[in-house]
Specification:
This protein has 14 helices and 14 strands. The two termini are about 40 Å apart. The longest helix is centred in the last third of the chain and has 23 residues. The radius of gyration is 20 Å and the shape is globular. Strands 1, 2, 3, 4, 5, 6, 11 and 12 form an eight-stranded antiparallel sheet that branches. A two-stranded antiparallel ribbon has the order 7-8. It has a two-stranded parallel sheet with strand order 9-10. Helix content is about 45%, strand content about 15%. The chain has one domain: Creatine Kinase, Chain A, domain 2.
C-alpha cells in the first residue's frame, strides 16, 4: 500500500489596511504555484497605487514536512508581511472579508480569478473575499480521489471552525461565512461530486477543456480536489483566519483526518460515502450558524450540536495527530470550541462597540499581529 507524505502547504490571502479610515487598500495573494507573492492595489484612484503597483514580495510558500515546520514557516511569513505593511504605511489584516469596504471601488479582480472573468462577469468582480487554502501531500492520484470522496463529509465541520466573514459591505449578514456565499456563486465551486477513479476525474476535467467550458484545470475550484499540478489534495473551504494558532489547528485537523482516511483504506475499510446534496445541506448550516449551530449526522439522520460532532471527530483523528507530532496544534481546536470561531468574535466586538465596524477591523488587525 502506498503511503502519502502528508506534508503541508499553507496559502494565505492578506488585506492591507489604511490605518486611519481602516479601508481596504490592497491585498496580497500567496500561492504554492509561484515563487513570489503578488501585491495588488484595490483601486486605481489612490496614492497607494504608486507605492505598490506591480510590487512583488520575494517569498514563496515552502512545503513543510510536519506541522512544527509549518508553524515556523507561517510565523516567518507573517513577520515579513507585517514588516512590509509597516514599511508602506499600512496595517495587515487576515479575515474572510473586509467588514465594510465595498467591492465597487476595486480596480481589478482578485489574483487567480482573472481567468474566469469572461465566464463569471459580475460574480468575479465582486469577489472581494479572502481564503485559506491548505495542501496535504497525497502523491498517488488514485488515493487522492478516494480520500477526496470520503473527506467531503467533514468539510462542513471544518468550515464551522474556520469562519471569519460575518460582515459584507458594512452590514452584518447574519451568516458566519459570507465568503462562502461569494465563492459558491462561481461556477465549478462548492462541494464536489464523487468520482470512481482518478481517470474518471481527469476525464471530467478533459471534457470541460475539450468543450471549451474552461481553458485549464485552474478554473475548477471545488472545496476539495487534487491539485492540477502539485501532488497534493487542496482544501479551499476555509475563510482566511486572523489567529495563527487557529490556522495551525485547522491544518492539523485536516492532516490528521486525511491520515485517518488513508488508514481506513489500508485496512480495507472505508468511510461511508454520502450524496453531495446532503453534504451541501450541512455546508449551508455551517455558513449560516457556524459553531453555534447544528449539523445533521447523516448516519442516523439527526441533528447534533456542532461542537459535539467535532469532538467526536477528534476521537477518531487524535491518534493520527500523535503519530504526526501535531497533537499540540490539534488541542487548540478545544480553545476554538470554547471561545468561538473568528466570526463569532467579530460579531461580539461589533456589538460591544455599538455596531462600529472600524472596531472589528481593529480587532482583526490585532489578532493578525499576534504570532504566539
Amino acid at each position: 500500500m502506498y503511503h502519502p507524505s502528508l506534508n503541508i502547504g499553507i496559502e494565505e490571502e492578506y488585506q492591507l489596511i489604511e490605518p486611519q479610515s481602516r479601508e481596504l487598500l490592497g491585498y496580497v495573494h500567496q500561492s504554492m504555484s509561484r515563487d513570489q507573492m503578488v501585491v495588488r492595489e484595490r483601486t486605481t484612484e489612490t496614492d497607494f497605487r504608486e507605492q505598490l503597483d506591480s510590487a512583488v514580495i520575494e517569498v514563496g510558500t515552502p512545503v513543510a514536512a510536519d506541522i512544527k515546520e509549518a508553524r515556523q514557516q507561517l510565523r516567518q511569513l507573517r513577520e515579513q508581511m507585517l514588516e512590509f505593511a509597516q514599511a508602506n504605511g499600512c496595517k495587515l489584516a487576515a479575515s474572510g472579508t473586509h467588514p465594510f469596504s465595498h467591492w465597487e471601488g476595486r480596480g481589478d479582480v482578485m489574483p487567480g480569478y482573472r481567468a474566469i472573468l469572461d465566464d463569471a462577469q459580475m460574480i468575479a468582480r465582486r469577489l472581494l473575499a479572502f481564503g485559506l487554502r491548505i495542501h496535504i501531500g497525497v502523491e498517488d492520484r488514485e488515493l487522492a480521489v478516494d480520500v477526496m470522496n470520503t473527506m467531503r463529509y467533514v468539510l462542513p465541520h471544518i468550515l464551522c471552525l474556520a469562519t471569519s466573514s460575518p460582515f459584507w459591505n458594512g452590514r452584518n449578514t447574519g451568516l458566519k461565512s459570507y465568503r462562502s456565499v461569494l465563492m459558491d456563486a462561481l461556477p465549478r465551486t462548492g462541494i464536489p461530486g464523487s468520482f470512481n477513479s482518478y481517470q474518471e476525474y481527469q476525464s471530467y476535467v478533459d471534457t470541460l477543456i475539450r468543450t471549451h467550458s474552461i481553458t485549464d484545470a485552474r478554473q475548477i475550484r471545488y472545496d476539495i480536489m487534487p491539485h492540477h499540478r502539485l501532488s497534493t489534495l487542496v482544501i479551499r473551504i476555509c475563510d482566511m483566519l486572523p489567529n495563527i494558532n487557529d490556522t495551525l489547528a485547522v491544518t492539523a485537523l485536516i492532516q490528521a483526518t486525511i491520515a485517518w482516511m488513508v488508514h481506513l483504506r489500508e485496512h480495507n475499510m472505508r468511510f461511508r460515502l454520502y450524496e453531495r446534496l446532503l453534504i451541501a445541506e450541512n455546508k449551508w448550516r455551517a455558513v449560516r450558524y457556524g459553531l453555534e449551530g447544528e449539523l445533521i449526522d447523516w448516519g442516523i439522520e439527526q441533528m447534533a450540536p456542532v461542537p459535539d460532532l467535532i469532538r467526536e471527530l477528534l476521537t477518531f483523528v487524535t491518534p493520527f495527530a500523535v503519530r504526526l507530532n501535531s497533537e499540540d496544534e490539534l488541542a487548540h481546536i478545544e480553545t476554538i470550541l470554547r471561545r468561538g470561531a473568528s466570526a463569532r468574535q467579530q460579531i461580539e466586538v461589533w456589538q460591544a462597540a455599538g455596531q462600529d465596524a472600524k472596531a472589528v477591523v481593529d480587532f482583526i488587525i490585532a489578532e493578525t499581529e499576534q504570532l504566539g
